[in-house]
Amino acid sequence: MFRWSLTTGLIGLLYWQMKLASSLSNGAPVSARADLIPRHSGVQPQPFPIPYTIDFKRNLDANVQTFTVVILGPDYKGLLLEALMPNSNIALGKWQTPPPNTKYLKCSGNEQDAITHSNTQIKNNSTTYSWIPPSPMPP
After folding, report:
1. Which contacts qualify for 42-46: CB closer than 8 Å, 24 or more apart?
2. Would residue 36 count as lying in a domain?
3. pTM tops 0.90
Protein backbone atom coordinates (compact mmCIF):
# COMPACT_ATOMS: atom_id res chain seq x y z
CA MET A 1 0.00 0.00 0.00
CA PHE A 2 1.28 3.44 -0.90
CA ARG A 3 1.92 5.85 1.98
CA TRP A 4 1.97 9.58 1.51
CA SER A 5 4.80 11.53 3.06
CA LEU A 6 6.35 14.92 2.62
CA THR A 7 9.00 13.31 0.41
CA THR A 8 6.32 11.72 -1.76
CA GLY A 9 4.59 15.08 -2.07
CA LEU A 10 7.81 16.81 -3.06
CA ILE A 11 8.63 14.12 -5.59
CA GLY A 12 5.10 14.43 -6.95
CA LEU A 13 5.57 18.16 -7.27
CA LEU A 14 8.55 17.60 -9.54
CA TYR A 15 6.17 16.11 -12.08
CA TRP A 16 3.89 19.12 -12.18
CA GLN A 17 4.14 20.93 -15.43
CA MET A 18 2.94 24.44 -15.70
CA LYS A 19 3.31 27.34 -18.07
CA LEU A 20 2.36 30.84 -17.05
CA ALA A 21 2.03 33.41 -19.78
CA SER A 22 0.06 36.32 -21.09
CA SER A 23 -2.71 34.24 -22.41
CA LEU A 24 -5.26 33.18 -24.96
CA SER A 25 -8.47 34.79 -23.79
CA ASN A 26 -10.40 31.54 -23.34
CA GLY A 27 -7.72 29.14 -22.10
CA ALA A 28 -4.93 26.93 -23.34
CA PRO A 29 -5.78 24.36 -26.03
CA VAL A 30 -5.11 20.67 -25.32
CA SER A 31 -2.28 20.82 -27.88
CA ALA A 32 -0.35 23.14 -25.51
CA ARG A 33 0.46 20.08 -23.37
CA ALA A 34 3.03 18.87 -25.90
CA ASP A 35 5.73 21.40 -25.03
CA LEU A 36 4.00 24.02 -22.85
CA ILE A 37 5.08 26.83 -25.16
CA PRO A 38 2.54 29.61 -25.76
CA ARG A 39 1.31 29.66 -29.34
CA HIS A 40 -0.43 33.03 -29.46
CA SER A 41 0.86 36.12 -31.14
CA GLY A 42 3.32 38.29 -29.25
CA VAL A 43 3.79 35.99 -26.24
CA GLN A 44 7.19 34.60 -25.36
CA PRO A 45 7.96 31.82 -22.85
CA GLN A 46 8.86 33.04 -19.38
CA PRO A 47 12.53 33.95 -18.85
CA PHE A 48 14.92 32.15 -16.53
CA PRO A 49 14.96 32.21 -13.65
CA ILE A 50 11.22 31.61 -13.68
CA PRO A 51 9.58 34.16 -11.37
CA TYR A 52 7.01 31.67 -10.02
CA THR A 53 7.03 28.89 -7.45
CA ILE A 54 4.33 26.38 -6.60
CA ASP A 55 3.33 26.18 -2.97
CA PHE A 56 1.29 23.17 -1.94
CA LYS A 57 -0.12 21.97 1.33
CA ARG A 58 -1.59 18.57 2.08
CA ASN A 59 -5.10 18.63 3.54
CA LEU A 60 -6.41 15.61 5.38
CA ASP A 61 -10.13 15.02 5.49
CA ALA A 62 -11.83 11.94 6.89
CA ASN A 63 -12.85 10.86 3.38
CA VAL A 64 -10.41 12.34 0.90
CA GLN A 65 -6.90 13.73 0.78
CA THR A 66 -6.35 16.93 -1.22
CA PHE A 67 -3.54 19.37 -1.85
CA THR A 68 -4.09 23.11 -1.87
CA VAL A 69 -1.93 24.63 -4.61
CA VAL A 70 -0.98 28.31 -4.88
CA ILE A 71 1.20 29.88 -7.57
CA LEU A 72 3.49 32.41 -5.86
CA GLY A 73 5.07 35.27 -7.75
CA PRO A 74 3.91 38.16 -9.93
CA ASP A 75 0.28 38.38 -11.05
CA TYR A 76 -0.51 36.20 -14.06
CA LYS A 77 -3.26 35.95 -16.65
CA GLY A 78 -2.83 32.49 -18.11
CA LEU A 79 -1.79 29.06 -16.98
CA LEU A 80 -1.89 25.36 -17.70
CA LEU A 81 -1.72 23.40 -14.46
CA GLU A 82 -1.52 19.61 -14.58
CA ALA A 83 -0.03 16.78 -12.53
CA LEU A 84 1.55 14.07 -14.69
CA MET A 85 2.77 10.53 -14.19
CA PRO A 86 6.59 10.44 -14.17
CA ASN A 87 8.09 10.32 -17.68
CA SER A 88 4.70 10.36 -19.40
CA ASN A 89 1.86 12.52 -20.62
CA ILE A 90 -0.73 10.73 -18.48
CA ALA A 91 -2.55 13.01 -16.07
CA LEU A 92 -2.37 12.04 -12.42
CA GLY A 93 -5.31 12.60 -10.08
CA LYS A 94 -7.93 15.25 -10.68
CA TRP A 95 -8.66 18.86 -9.82
CA GLN A 96 -11.54 20.04 -7.70
CA THR A 97 -13.81 22.87 -8.86
CA PRO A 98 -11.58 25.50 -10.50
CA PRO A 99 -11.43 28.96 -8.90
CA PRO A 100 -13.01 31.97 -10.65
CA ASN A 101 -11.47 32.92 -14.01
CA THR A 102 -10.21 29.36 -14.59
CA LYS A 103 -11.72 26.15 -15.98
CA TYR A 104 -11.05 22.47 -16.49
CA LEU A 105 -9.08 21.30 -19.51
CA LYS A 106 -9.68 17.69 -20.54
CA CYS A 107 -6.33 16.22 -21.56
CA SER A 108 -6.04 12.49 -20.79
CA GLY A 109 -9.69 11.51 -21.02
CA ASN A 110 -10.74 12.88 -17.63
CA GLU A 111 -12.77 16.08 -17.55
CA GLN A 112 -10.76 17.23 -14.51
CA ASP A 113 -7.22 16.46 -15.80
CA ALA A 114 -5.93 20.00 -15.89
CA ILE A 115 -6.83 23.61 -15.18
CA THR A 116 -6.36 26.54 -17.52
CA HIS A 117 -7.50 30.15 -17.56
CA SER A 118 -11.01 30.99 -18.80
CA ASN A 119 -10.29 34.68 -19.49
CA THR A 120 -7.51 37.24 -19.19
CA GLN A 121 -8.48 38.46 -15.72
CA ILE A 122 -5.56 38.69 -13.30
CA LYS A 123 -4.83 35.68 -11.11
CA ASN A 124 -2.47 36.05 -8.16
CA ASN A 125 -1.20 34.60 -4.87
CA SER A 126 -4.77 34.54 -3.52
CA THR A 127 -5.96 32.22 -6.32
CA THR A 128 -5.98 28.70 -4.91
CA TYR A 129 -6.37 25.37 -6.69
CA SER A 130 -7.24 22.03 -5.12
CA TRP A 131 -5.83 18.73 -6.43
CA ILE A 132 -6.95 15.22 -5.46
CA PRO A 133 -4.26 12.55 -5.87
CA PRO A 134 -5.26 9.11 -7.13
CA SER A 135 -5.91 6.43 -4.57
CA PRO A 136 -3.89 4.36 -4.41
CA MET A 137 -1.01 6.36 -5.82
CA PRO A 138 0.83 4.50 -8.60
CA PRO A 139 4.48 3.48 -7.94
Report:
1. 45/19, 45/21, 46/19, 46/20, 46/21
2. no
3. no
